[in-house]
């Protein structure tokens, strides 16, 4: 196929996405090696974190190819945040290592949280705001919260019940596959943002070595209760409008 016929068909060349993927993998390998040297982590950490990031990168490139978009600088920032999240997720299977490096893990989580505001700023600055970028950012936020919950379980700071904080959002999305009225767009609410901030700060603080388990569990319990209340209010709002004609396609619930 010639270059002109490729443009006429509306298809983007494959190789730019492959180059982006290769650069992403190389960057992640370098980051992992630096973290291993800095934290004296187990060698298998590179495998667990690498598997998670590779899967994340594969999904991102697949969705980009489907949407015929380029990655862009804002999504590159989100991808760097994904590297940090993957590094923390890969360390969850080594609880003793995490416990001995609790401050460093909290620092990585804080860096990932800080980058959460940078990607949106870059998107607005470069006029590259897109539906894909918003979805990528939201899905990474949800996964980040689930990883933090798993980290608290691995550290013995909370029971397995804390995983419900990260799992509720996925359950809500799955329910939308069977009940179309759950996919209706929700109005903006400050309540969701406030609860999201509370749960992230609570989970992140739980990684700190000096935080006692009873306090972490208590704060996480409050976060879970607030999250359940938030979902209940939104589900009630959607239920009352279940017979109204649907409009548009709602983005999945962003965690709160």
Please tell me about this protein's structure.
The chain is an all-alpha fold and 256 residues long. It is built from ten helices and no strands. The protein has one domain: Four Helix Bundle (Hemerythrin (Met), subunit A) (Up-down Bundle), CATH 1.20.120. It has helices at 3-9, 15-39, 45-67, 72-91, 95-100, 102-125, 131-154, 163-178, 190-205, 213-240. α6 (102-125) runs antiparallel to α7 (131-154), α8 runs parallel beside α10 (213-240) and α9 runs antiparallel to α10. The protein is globular and about 60 Å long. This is CDP-alcohol phosphatidyltransferase family protein.
Quick gist of this model?
The protein is mainly alpha-helical and 256 residues long. It is 74% helix and 0% strand.
Helices and strands in order:
Layout: H1 3-9, H2 15-39, H3 45-67, H4 72-91, H5 95-100, H6 102-125, H7 131-154, H8 163-178, H9 190-205, H10 213-240
Keywords: Membrane, Transferase, Transmembrane, Transmembrane helix
Pfam family, one: CDP-OH_P_transf
Protein name: CDP-alcohol phosphatidyltransferase family protein
């Amino acid at each position: 196929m010639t270059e002109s016929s490729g443009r006429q068909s509306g298809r983007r060349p494959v190789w730019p996405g492959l180059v982006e993927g290769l650069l992403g993998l190389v960057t992640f390998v370098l980051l992992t090696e630096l973290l291993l040297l800095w934290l004296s982590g187990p060698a298998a950490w590179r495998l667990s974190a690498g598997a998670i990031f590779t899967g994340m990168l594969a999904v991102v490139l697949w969705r980009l190819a489907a949407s015929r978009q380029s990655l862009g600088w804002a999504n590159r920032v989100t991808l760097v945040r994904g590297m940090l999240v993957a590094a923390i997720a890969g360390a969850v299977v080594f609880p003793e290592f995490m416990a001995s490096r609790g401050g460093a893990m909290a620092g990585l989580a804080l860096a990932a949280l800080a980058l959460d505001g940078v990607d949106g700023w870059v998107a607005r600055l470069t006029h590259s705001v897109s539906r894909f970028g918003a979805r990528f950012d939201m899905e990474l936020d949800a996964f980040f919260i689930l990883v933090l919950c798993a980290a608290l379980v691995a550290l013995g700071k909370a029971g397995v019940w804390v995983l419900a904080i990260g799992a509720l959002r996925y359950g809500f999305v799955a329910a939308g596959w069977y009940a179309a009225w759950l996919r209706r767009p929700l109005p903006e609410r400050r309540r969701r943002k406030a609860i999201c901030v509370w749960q992230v700060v609570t989970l992140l603080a739980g990684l700190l070595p000096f935080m006692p388990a009873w306090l972490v569990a208590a704060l996480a319990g409050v976060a879970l209760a607030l999250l359940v209340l938030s979902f209940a209010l939104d589900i009630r709002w959607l239920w009352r409008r279940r017979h109204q004609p649907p409009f548009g396609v709602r983005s999945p619930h962003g965690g709160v």
